[in-house]
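To the wet lab folks,

You asked to see what we're planning to order before we commit. Fair enough. Below is the target structure as tokens, and below that is the sequence we designed to fit it. If anything looks off to you, flag it before the synthesis order goes out.
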């Protein structure tokens, strides 16, 4: 692990295994977290978008974090603590700290299109939990864009230590590095992994290692290490899958790939609907092609 920087390296935004009745299968989740670490991942991010946190009860959400910590150790667990209210997000950060986690990931206010003052107040409140906070910039889903200037201000105030960058705009990596050189950039979308790794990212909050951890870790390590001879062919092989991470159906797609790869992906909770036949066929074909090429 990375000592005082537990958000560095490959941290998997874990999919959450559900039973047929859509209850959470905590034993399978514990096994999945352990399997990811055994296959080279540095840690896990429970209760991210991929973990369907929005449709969990508070009891389920807390137990998911505790299950991950029991499986792989608190230093490897960085939970998402997003909530509509700042007080609730801070409580989730405190719960993470009590469970043994060393960092948390936080979206900006996402109940409405927050202005800059609201964003600063939100991060200030959660920072009071005492845990390092990694911001999560997802302007596509939240309608709040943590632009480089705002990230630099959040970092300068001491509220955040890193940012999961999901805008897809790889040019921002260089602006962030200029404005806040000590702020750790984390790859937030699987399909710009190579571009952001080359630009100096310190980690990857990742989706597709849920299905193919070894190949994804090899890709990240090669890209981050500047070994483009290894990274480029792998990236081309995996990109038909990685691009699903930036689509509306990313949870369903990654869970389907997990099923095909012999893991438990399983169903999603409503309102997420099953993939359309054409989408399912595309994910299935890309996953089977990757597996046939020896990727795992």
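Sequence we intend to order:
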């Amino acid at each position: 692990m990375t000592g005082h920087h537990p958000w560095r390296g490959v941290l998997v935004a874990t999919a959450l295994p559900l039973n047929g009745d859509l209850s959470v299968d905590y034993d399978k989740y514990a096994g999945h977290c352990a399997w990811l670490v055994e296959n080279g991942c540095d840690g896990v991010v429970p209760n991210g978008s991929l973990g369907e946190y929005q449709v969990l009860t508070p009891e389920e959400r807390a137990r998911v974090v505790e299950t991950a910590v029991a499986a792989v150790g608190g230093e490897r667990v960085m939970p998402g603590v997003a909530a509509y209210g700042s007080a609730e997000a801070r409580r989730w950060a405190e719960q993470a700290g009590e469970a043994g986690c060393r960092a948390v990931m936080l979206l900006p206010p996402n109940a409405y299109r927050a202005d800059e003052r609201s964003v600063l107040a939100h991060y200030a409140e959660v920072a009071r939990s005492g845990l390092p906070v990694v911001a999560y910039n997802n302007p596509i889903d939240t309608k709040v864009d943590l632009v480089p200037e705002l990230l630099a201000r959040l970092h300068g105030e001491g509220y955040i230590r890193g940012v999961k960058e999901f805008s897809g705009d790889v040019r921002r990596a260089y602006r962030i590095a200029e404005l806040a050189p000590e702020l750790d950039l984390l790859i937030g979308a699987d399909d710009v992994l190579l571009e952001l790794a080359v630009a100096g990212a310190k980690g990857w909050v990742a989706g597709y290692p849920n299905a193919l951890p070894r190949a994804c870790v090899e890709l990240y390590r090669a890209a981050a290490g500047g070994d483009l001879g290894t990274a480029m062919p792998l990236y081309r092989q995996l990109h038909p899958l990685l691009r699903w991470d930036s689509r509306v159906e990313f949870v369903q797609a990654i869970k389907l790939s997990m099923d095909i790869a012999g893991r438990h992906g399983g169903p999603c909770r409503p309102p997420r609907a099953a993939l359309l036949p054409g989408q399912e066929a595309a994910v299935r074909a890309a996953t089977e092609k990757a597996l046939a090429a020896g990727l795992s």
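Structural context that might help your review: Residues 148 and 175 are 6 Å apart (CA to CA). The mean pLDDT is 97.

Thanks,
Computational group
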